[in-house]
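Hi there. Long-time user, first ticket. I'm pasting a complex I've been working with (about 574 residues overall). I'd like to know whether the download I got is complete or cut off, because the file seemed smaller than I expected. Thanks.
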Amino acid sequence: MGASKIIPLDEAIRQLTTDGMSLALGTALEGMIPFAAGHEIIRQGKKDLTLIGPISDILFDQLIGAGSVARVIAAWVGNVTSGAGYNFRRAVEQGHPRSIEVLDHSNYSLALALAAGAAGTEFAVTRSLFGSDISLNQDIFRELICPFTGERHLAVRALRPDLTILHVQRCDSRGNAHFWGSSGVSLDAAAAADRVLLTTEEIVPTEFIRSDPSRTLIPEFLVSAVALVPWGAHPSSVYGFYGHDDDYYIEYAQATKDRTAAHAWYQEWVFGLPDRAAYLQHLDAARLARLRLTHPALTIPVDFGY
Amino acid sequence: MNASVSEANVVLDYTPQELMVAAAAREIADGELVFVGMRLPLLAFLLAKRSHAPSALGLFENGVIRDTAAPRAFMTMGDPVNLTYALKCTEMKEIMAYLQRGRVNLGFVGGAEIDRFGNLNTSMIGRPGEDGFVRLPGSGGGSDIACLAQRLLIIMAHQKRRFKEKVSYITSPGYGDGGSWRTGAGLIRGGPKAVITTMGILRFDPETREAYLDSIHPGVTADEVKANTGWDLKVSTDVSVTRAPTEAELAVIREYDPQGHWTGWRKR
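Hi, the file is complete. Here it is re-exported in full:
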């Protein structure tokens, strides 16, 4: 038996994050976003982070508005439900609360950059992005002629995050994680990273993992720490657990439209709450009840016997 | 904006967005593989599935492949209901590889700005430090779809500030500066097939690749469309009137946009 990697979330963030590091988050796109971990990073006052993600949704916006971020490497930064991310806009347009550098990718090029990082090569190739101004950034993209056919390709520089944080449905104490549903770039983001932190809805015995090995997205050797954080992805969805809190995204957009109101939002939802348990209490039980799934759709069991 | 038209003595009430959804749905053929975005494109896919294209398959960039319309309305592709009874849930890389391999018949994108050759900007208006600089969210999968789908459908609000002589940043390439620009740029296929706007439908000249007005929505004139376009928009010699959505189409659209969040039908 491997040693348990379970530690409290605040301890995990203290151990695994440092100022100036690069961090991949929100790698399954609109669902499974590790909001609880992101809020803890803000509370601990981490600085000068580089954020890496495809469609990063409002967790990036929140980290940017808190002044934690120096650089964003992403295909899209905003609010998936309502459009603009106002903290992101203020940072890029006005340098508030600090200026940030943005390295634009497309979803595919970001996925490929992480896939190259995961596979240990220095670049990946694509035929996307020709003619797009995105491809003009020579630090990330260079044209490449196929050595076999002479056809034009675009080389995409590999990305290797210092840390990838994933929220999963369930894992064991060693970090073997079951993940079901669409996973975006999660596996490559984890495999490319130096370290991985899992936040999870449930911790289960390893027998659970072994009962359905096709459902294991992350094997234990990638994982540095595991934190049990039920509802750790709210307001995003966790497949099989809770739905997407669309209203929260709309309320967030309204609450962060101007700078002063945004300040109040942080007090209410991050700095004023010591941990996820307090957050859930503040969110109130009726709201959580509304987000619980109402229409089960169970899989038909499969046989892994011999 | 309201539109009321008389059709076979039945007065229909619908919004321009609902008409756009119905027009977009008609661009999807049965059996096609469709790269589905959110908002109006999602509604168009669902409408096509429920009407003339029941065997179309939808690909979502988060990794979902579906052959049925979701059991109820949803606002993001990451809503659990978009995974319920899907055919496959996988990685983005797999979905994007299908797109790059040329298997995807049709993709949808929107944009903040478009120019006469269908180039789209969703990245930034102006440049950092300039007056009026606005940072937009970015490409998402838009540029990949614009580069790699066999056909591209663009869905946008028709406003002069959005329909510009030249976009300040090409996020998703259309036909560049026209003609065979795409091939020269290194693109292997594709290009915009139509731009479905709040006022009409633009298509592209097969030679010059310049956009022209092909159909006008009921109640709108060609002069109004031209007045809301930032370049001298050419008008087809046999410009038609866009078919209004039917009651059956409106019922499906409203089922999947119950609050009118995207189509505004409750406020019409």
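A couple of notes from our side: The mean pLDDT of chain B is 93. Chain B has one domain: 11-261.
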